[in-house]
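Feature request, filed as a ticket because there's no other form

It would be nice if the structure record came with a short human-readable summary line next to the tokens. Right now we just get the raw output. Example of a typical job, pasted below so the devs can see what we mean:
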Amino acid sequence: MKPLQGKRVVVTRSRAQASELCRRIEDLGGSTYEFPVIRIEWPEDLRPLDAAIHSVETYDWVAFTSPNGVEMFFERLQSSGRTTQAMQSVKIAAVGPKTAALVEQQGLTVHALAGEFVGEGLANTLTTHTQAGQKILLPRANLARKQLPQALRNLGLHVTEVEAYRTLPVTEDASDLVKRLESKEIQAVTFTSSSTVTNFLNALKDYPIHDLLAGVTLAAIGPITADTVEKNGLTVDVMPADYTILGLVEALVRHLRRD
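Raw output as currently delivered:
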């Protein structure tokens, strides 16, 4: 029998991002219930991103902190008429293997990969790769945390932050999900960012959330997401040591097997 046989797992990622997580769960015999609570959109004002792309070769570093940041940045670069040739002299840093792989698919080299897959981990990695006075570009989400740019400035770097995309809440009717939680059809809920936690709880704000989630495994992809869960008075049951989709699924399997 496959390890997730008979287990139904809620996936809260955007529909565009959910496929990898759903596929891994289903390959292991589980079933998924998609309840996307975020969507990815372009910034309202594209001029800062376009300006950064137009002058990208003037930066010493470009640092990508998410797959979304890579995809939106290079899509805009291509539509602006520029090519990755403009970035051949620029060093690239990335948070996490998925982000790095997407950069490399563009034919570019990742010069620094964060050992810990959060923003602060990237700052620690760049300590030994950068020199004070260098210029670094951060294409990020509208809701990105401020710890990373501050940590980079503490290294003496000149940091330019640009909004490459927006993470917006999706409001879906939660009544069907609530029925499934009430009837104990759901064994786990996965969270892949703080935004998914916040928006999921907002979607269920009119329901007795603690009662609904009693006995349901809550899985968070990393410490920042886990912290958001716990700040809302809930308990994280699963958090992988490796803050990736693969790590999340493997940790979920181990936990559910024990149960």
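Something like this underneath would help us a lot:
The longest strand covers residues 158-169.
The chain has a mean pLDDT of 93.
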